[in-house]
Amino acid sequence: MTSLTRAEAGPTRLLTLVRDYWDTENDLHYRRAKTLREDATWMTYRRLAEAMAILNNWIEPALLTGQRNLAAA
Description:
Layout: H1 11-34, H2 46-64
């Protein structure tokens, strides 16, 4: 589903949009999953998991300081 018109949503355009979305999503998720170990947590309380996600949202930009690799920061 898309909000684009038929004229705007040609196959090439849709493919580009999908690839761009997943490129960004995979890049962000990989960094958070591997470096901040988000996927390795065993939090069963929703509020605690949300709090950790908020902290990670603050930590990641502070550590990156112009670097693409969070582990190197």
